[in-house]
Design brief:
Elements (H helix, E strand, L loop, with lengths): L3 E3 L6 E3 L2 H10 L4 H14 L5 E3 H14 L20 E3 L5 E3 L2 H10 L4 H17 L4 E3 H16 L1 H15 L4 E6 L6 H12 L4 E3 H11 L29 H30 L3 E4 L18 E8 L3 H14 L5 H6 L1 H17 L3 E4 L3 H16 L7 H5 L13 H12 L1
Parallel strand pairs: 1-3, 4-6, 7-9, 7-10, 8-9, 10-11
Antiparallel strand pairs: 1-2, 4-5
Helix pairs in contact: 1-2, 1-5, 4-5, 4-8, 6-7, 6-16, 8-14, 10-13
């Protein structure tokens, strides 16, 4: 939980950052170890405090300084509680922007880190840069500092994932992520969250593609298009349906409908491939077979996941919820056809297993999102295996000829030798 500091004069609110306090204490004359220790102790005292006034923070700083014999070293009432520093980040294209913690957190999440942990790591790195007086940094330097911090403070595995994601982002390789699943499995929700974290702007729903095709081709010409995926078998020319296995009927109907949608799905993937942009294709018709039809030279990076809700009671509950949120979805109709939906999910899972595609149980949205992202990282690891020197360039060995103050080198040196 972050502690919010309220300015006594204008009532503005800012988060308490240990790095800002450390920097202020250093400027006031304290040694680094003393400043860091005092700021850490104050942060621990405020750990369960949601909100505190600036004047009370200064009083606590004063008390800590007095208890440690540093009262004469600094005027506690003159300590700034807001950062007067602006860390400027320069991109490889020459663009300049302020350090964005939300963007940094998302990059860590894209590497497979949980959101809460990503926030903690970003805060720690930001504080470290503030303490070391860094005012300007390039994206490669920030990446290398992050890599070093992850290797030292989190794990070598997490640092490796970050390195893989960093290398991919520097490449022009196409990434195609397919998210399949039956009705109520959470495909659209998970796809939206994953797209946000991975910074993918193109999301295509197979349901939307089917709807477009329905507008172009009337029911009387192609009735297969105008049925639900779990009832598509009813449009098949079958006379003895009652004598056949219900599960096989559902599977046959889905295959026939999926074949019709395959052309439109392939077009979406082909366009993304030609433009070298990442894309997410989500829907019940995002079949793993689509990936086998992609070009071989060069081969795009393709990831397929199938979401599943393995408890019938939970899936029914979700279908009821869909009806409350969007009445047009007619939850009652889905519940009446639940056996067919359950049968289709079983078929989709068997297909995922046949194609050796990842199956992810979606009982918890955040966990499912992270598992999809980790699956992306696993696939990327098959294509990217460069060293930190190759990914971050000369900054690994030295600052180089770039116009960066010595404070950045100090931050790197401290991390590299810890």
């Amino acid at each position: 939980m972050k502690t919010i500091v309220v300015n006594d004069k204008d009532q503005t609110k800012i988060p308490f950052l240990r790095g800002i306090l450390v920097r202020s204490l250093l400027d006031a004359g304290l040694e680094f170890d003393d400043a860091h220790s005092l700021a850490t102790e104050l942060r621990e005292e405020l750990d369960d405090t949601e909100e505190i006034s600036a004047s009370e923070v200064r009083e606590r700083i004063s008390a800590l300084l007095e208890s440690r014999g540093h009262l004469g070293a600094v005027d506690p009432y003159g300590l700034p509680l807001t950062s007067t520093m602006r860390i400027e980040v320069n991109s490889r294209k020459g663009n300049k922007s302020a350090f964005s913690r939300s963007r940094h957190e998302r990059f860590l999440q894209a590497s497979g880190m949980k959101a809460e942990k990503a926030e903690q790591v970003t805060d720690a790195i930001y504080e470290r840069l503030l303490v070391d007086g860094v005012t300007t940094v390039t994206t490669r330097q920030l990446g290398y500092v992050t890599y070093l911090y992850l290797r030292q403070e989190v794990s070598k595995k997490m640092a490796r994932r970050f390195l893989i994601w960093s290398e991919y982002r520097q490449s022009s390789r196409s990434l195609m992520l397919l998210i399949c699943g039956a009705v109520g499995s959470g495909k659209s929700t998970v796809a939206t969250e994953v797209a946000h974290v991975l910074d993918i702007v193109r999301i295509q729903s197979t349901d939307m593609l089917r709807e477009v095709m329905r507008m172009m081709i009337p029911d009387r010409l192609l009735p297969m298009l105008h049925t639900s995926s779990f009832e598509a078998w009813k449009a098949l020319p079958i006379r003895d349906a009652r004598e056949r296995d219900p599960d096989q009927l559902v599977a046959d109907g889905f295959r026939s409908q999926s074949d019709l949608l395959a052309v439109a799905c392939e077009a979406v993937l082909q366009r993304a491939f030609e433009e070298s942009v990442p894309v997410i294709l989500e829907g019940v018709h995002a079949h793993p077979e689509l990936l086998e039809r992609l070009p071989d030279d060069p081969r795009p990076i393709a990831v397929h996941t199938t979401l599943a809700v393995l408890k019938a009671k939970e899936l029914k509950s979700r279908l009821k919820g869909r009806g409350k949120e969007v009445p047009a979805r007619r939850a009652k109709r889905y519940l009446n056809k639940f056996d067919a939906i359950w049968s289709l999910q079983s078929f989709l899972l068997s297909e995922a297993d046949r194609y050796d595609a990842a199956i992810i149980t979606n009982h918890d949205k955040e966990k499912a999102v992270q598992q999809v992202i980790l699956q992306v990282i696993v696939e990327l690891s098959k294509h990217f295996d460069s060293s930190p020197r190759e990914v971050f360039g000369a900054v690994v060995d030295r600052v180089g000829g770039e116009a960066v103050d010595d404070s950045w080198q100090q931050a790197v040196t401290r991390l590299a030798t810890e």
